[in-house]
Design a protein that fits this description.
Largest interface: A-B, 34 and 35 residues
Largest sheet of chain B: 9 strands, mixed
Number of strands of chain A: 7
Order of helices and strands of chain A: HHHEHEHEHEHEEEH
CATH superfamily of chain B: Glutaredoxin
Number of helices of chain B: 5
Oligomer: heterodimer
Helix content of chain B: 25-40%
CATH topology of chain B: Glutaredoxin
CATH topology of chain A: Glutaredoxin
Shape of chain B: globular
Distance between the termini of chain B: 45 Å
Order of helices and strands of chain B: HEEEEHEHEHEEEHEE
Number of strands of chain B: 11
CATH class of chain B: Alpha Beta
Strand content of chain A: 15-25%
Helix content of chain A: 40-55%
Largest sheet of chain A: 6 strands, mixed
CATH architecture of chain A: 3-Layer(aba) Sandwich
Strand content of chain B: 15-25%
CATH class of chain A: Alpha Beta
Structural class of chain B: alpha/beta
Number of helices of chain A: 8
Chain lengths: ~200, ~210
């Protein structure tokens, strides 16, 4: 349930940013507009489910801190969260992204959720990364990790001590079943990715 | 029933195990092999000639960096690599850059493109092409950039530090800890290295199939 809350929060932030972008307000206007738009957004989002907020098409990619990401990963409960680390510059990452979108489509009724975590330069979040996600019509939820407190060495160590920091890399998590499996490297095709999650669904 | 329990436990244990495909590479204390690789710069033996660690007669050790042309993390570190070489080559630790990527998978990392990039950036260090990827495999390089700091001890090159250059890939001005420089300064001062390995996000090495 906490996961849902966090994702809802992310979705709210997405929507606010998306609205701001449409109207192109000045920074001052945007700040002023925030308190007024919040209650409306909350009402609109109250009926959202995992399936709906899984769609990141057309939204601005939001930033998350490592603590926020950790919170999501530690509380997936009965959702099998497939958390994929990628970057717009990473060719093998881009190649495998459609497999993850397809996986979410095929297994959404089995409580499978995909989260793309971009490790691009945080400066490129609202520009290159968002443009990429829109252009490629990435459907799964996409966030960018913007961690300022911990160094990469520190957060990699906390997240997966046996990961060397090379992407693509994927973590499969289902906290209700104590599943936390790390997969270094890319998936050759959809079937290879699908085969990876089958054992976790039983 | 007992068997079933054991099976279940084993199953649960295997679910919990973290899988990586990492063939173990060098760790601090290991002996690193030398190599002979084609140089994309005219530093050391000249452009197009092979270069080896043993060619650096006066070196006390080497900063071996697996890097490449295309990876944004590598690009972000180019100026820092130049500064590192300029600072430490005269103290006995020249930097040797090696591009290990398969050019079928990443054409931007071809030898010709290496030559071009080295010229553009006026690399003061050797930029070598690991065309068979054997050296990256032997060292256990996982990403670009990935550092292996070596110290000559008799006829051997001993690994003293592995991993990241510093703690901020994207923003040099925001760097708080310079892992590699700290290790180098410790070596030069005959002091123990406090942090012998550091991780960072990087581009995965493009291995040939």
């Amino acid at each position: 349930m906490r996961l849902l809350k966090i994702l809802l929060l992310i979705a709210v932030m997405f929507n606010i940013v998306a609205c701001q972008n449409e109207d192109k307000p000045t920074e001052e206007e945007a700040q002023m507009a925030l308190p007024h738009s919040e209650p409306v957004k909350t009402n609109e989002l109250s009926n959202l489910d995992l399936k709906k907020i899984a769609n990141s098409k057309g939204k601005t990619v939001e930033a998350v801190t490592f603590a926020e990401l950790e919170e999501i990963l530690e509380n997936t409960e009965d959702v099998l969260l497939v958390c994929n680390f990628w970057g717009t510059y990473c060719k093998p990452c881009i190649e495998e992204m459609p497999y993850f979108d397809k996986l979410q489509d095929e297994f959404q009724d089995k409580n499978v959720k995909v989260l793309f975590v971009s490790l691009d330069n945080p400066k490129a979040r609202e520009t290159e990364v968002t443009t990429f996600v829109r252009k490629k019509q990435v459907r799964s939820e996409t966030v960018l990790l913007d961690e300022k407190e911990l160094s990469q060495d520190e957060w990699i160590q906390k997240l997966m001590p046996n990961w060397e920091g090379d992407i693509p890399a994927t973590i499969f998590v289902k906290t209700s079943n104590d599943i936390k499996e790390f997969y270094a490297g890319g998936f050759e095709d959809y079937n290879q990715l699908k085969a990876q999650i089958i054992p976790y669904l039983e | 029933m007992k068997t079933l329990m054991v099976c279940l436990l084993l199953g649960a244990a295997s679910m919990l195990s973290f899988k990586t495909d990492s063939a173990n590479g060098y760790e601090p204390g290991d002996t690193a092999i030398d190599f002979s690789l084609k140089n994309a710069t005219d530093n050391i033996n000249g452009l197009g000639k092979n270069a080896s660690l043993k060619d650096y007669k006066d070196a006390k050790g080497y900063i071996v960096v697996f890097t490449c042309n295309h990876c944004p993390f590598s690009v972000a570190y180019e100026d820092r690599l130049i500064a590192l070489h300029n600072k430490y080559a005269t103290k006995g630790y020249p930097l040797v850059a090696i591009n290990p990527n398969d050019i079928k998978k990443q054409p931007a990392d071809s030898y010709d493109n290496m030559v071009e990039r080295a010229k553009e950036k006026k690399f003061p260090f050797a930029y070598l092409y690991d065309n068979t990827q054997a050296i990256a495999l032997a060292y256990g390089a996982k990403r670009t950039p990935h550092v292996f700091l070596l110290k000559k001890e008799g006829a051997k090159n001993i690994v003293k530090f592995t991993g990241a250059i510093d703690d901020n890939s994207w923003n040099e001005e925001a760097v708080k800890t310079k892992y590699l420089e700290n290790a180098l300064d410790a070596l030069l001062g005959n002091e123990p290295i406090q942090k012998k390995t550091a991780k960072a996000v990087g581009c995965t090495i493009k291995w040939a199939n």
